[in-house]
Amino acid sequence: MVANIHSCGIVGIQGQTVLCQCDLSGGLPQFDVVGLPDASVKESRDRVRAAIKNCDFEFPQRRITVNLAPGELRKEGPVYDLPILIGVLCASKQLPLPEEDACFIGELSLEGKLRPATGVLPMAIAARDAGIKTLYLPADNAAEASVCSELSVIPVQDVLQLARHLRGEEKIAPQQPYVFSTQHPEGLDFADVMGQESVKRALEIAAAGSHHVLMIGPPGSGKSMLAKRLPSILPDLTLEESLETSKVYSVAGMLESHTPMLQARPFRSPHHTVSAVGLAGGGSTRPKPGEISLAHNGVLFLDELPEFHKDAIEVLRQPLEDGVVTVSRISGIYTYPSQFMLVCAMNPCKCGYFGHPSGRCNCTEQSVRAYRKRISGPMMDRIDLHVPVKSVAYEQLRERKPAESSEVVRNRVNAARELQKKRYAGTGVHCNGQLTPAMMRECCPLTPQAQTLMAGAFDALGLSARAHDRILKVARTIADLAGEAQISEMHVAEAIQYRSLDRETVL
Hints:
- The protein folds into two domains: 2-166, Ribosomal Protein S5, domain 2 (2-Layer Sandwich), CATH 3.30.230; 190-427, Rossmann fold, CATH 3.40.50.
- By secondary structure, it is α/β, with parallel strands linked by helices.
- It has helices spanning 39-42, 44-54, 81-91, 120-129, 142-145, 159-166, 197-209, 223-229, 239-251, 276-280, 291-294, 310-314, 317-322, 365-372, 377-381, 394-399, 406-423, 437-443, 448-461, 465-481, 489-497, and strands at residues 2-11, 14-25, 30-34, 63-69, 102-104, 107-108, 114-115, 134-138, 152-156, 213-216, 267-268, 281-282, 288-289, 299-303, 324-329, 332-337, 341-346, 385-388.
- 45% of the residues are buried.
- The protein is elongated.
- The chain starts with a strand and ends in a 10-residue tail after the last helix.
- The strands form six sheets. The chain has a five-stranded parallel sheet with strand order 11-14-17-10-18.
C-alpha cells in the first residue's frame, strides 16, 4: 500500500508543496528516503523510528520506501519528520488516511513531541495557494500559520494527540486566525533631538520618498540618535509589506511565537565587522537571508561606514539597484527581497574632528580624502542625500526648545506617500526612490527655470547619470511634501544641496 501525504518545504524564502509517498513492501527490513534529501532529511528515519516505538505504535518490519516529490527539488531540514511518520502509520494501517486536502509539517523529538520549525509562514502560504484546506503543524508555530485565514490550522503537541484526532476520538480545536495591527517604536521620538533641524529635514525627505542617506559629522553630533528615530516617522507598515518581511524573518527563525507577523518596520544595525555573507545572506549548507533582506521594507543602518570591509560595502550595490539579493550555491540559486532604506553615518576624518570648532583635529587634507576614498564612487552615487551633521551648540542644549514630534513629521510623510501611491498606482512602484528612468520622464516634470538650474549643476559638479536621476527623485519628493505637482527651481536647488560629496567639499 502507498500512502500519499502532503507536506511543504522552503526554497529561498518561498514555500514549496511536497508530496510524501510512503510504500511498504516485502523483503528484508529497510528504511529508504529518496527524492534528493539532505543529511537532516535522511536523519528523519531514526527520529521517525524512535517516535513510532515510543508512542506505542508498531514499527513495520518491512521494506519502507519514502519518496519526496518533486524529485528535482532539494529537500532540506527536519520538517518532513511528521509527514513521513504519518505516511508509515497510514501505509501500515495503524492510522486512517487523512483527508486529501490536508498537509503535515513538523520536526519530531524521539518521544514523539513536535518541535517548532522555521519558515512556517511561507510554507503555509504555499499550502493555501495549492488548495490545501487543513494544516497540521507544531503548536508553537500555529499562530504564525494562522496568518493565512483561509487555512484551518491544527496545533499539534505530540503524535498521540494527533493520532486521537485523526481517529476521531478527540478533536483538536483549530487556531484562531491572526488579526494584523501596526505599531511604531515606543520611546524614540524626534522631539528628543535638540537642534539639527537641517538634518531632520533631510531625514523627513528620505522617509517621504524612501531615499538613501549618508550623514557626515563628528562623534557626539547625534547621527546614531537621529538614525534610530527614523522608523518613528516612516509610514505605517501595510499588511502586504508585513507579509513580505515576515516571510524573511520566518525563514531566518526570528519570528516570535506571540507575534507571528512584524508590526513595525524593521531597523537593522549590524556591527562594522560584519562580513559580506552576513550582509547579503548565504551559507555553505542551508542559505539564510542576511542583514540586507532582514531590513526589507525598513531601515538598514551602517554606522561608521568607512570601517566596514570593502567587499561588504560593495555587496550593497546590486541590491540597492535591483531590490533583490541573488545568492548562488551548489544547491541552487536563492533570491531574497531587499527593498530597504540605507542610512549610513561616518566621521569627516579618521579621528572624527576635522573642521570641529575645538580645533583638536590634526589630520591633513590628504588623509581626509584618503579616509573618504574608502567609499567608492559607484557606491556614493547610489546614496541620494549627503547630509552634514554639525555639533550641537550649547545654547540649543540649554534652551531645550520644544521640537516637532515624530507624529507631526509622520503626518507630512504620510501625505506625501499618499500622493505617490496615487501617482504610481498599478505600476508596481510605491515611492519616488523606486522610480525607473522611463517613469521619471513622465513623473518628474521640471519648470523651465528648474531645467536650467539642473543643466548648470550637471556640468559644474560633473554629475554621473545616476547622480542626476537621484537628484530628480529627491526633488520630486520635496515637491510632494510641498503638495506641488511640478518640480520648481526651489525644489531642485534643495535637492542639489544634498549632494555635498559630489562637490568634493570638506565638511
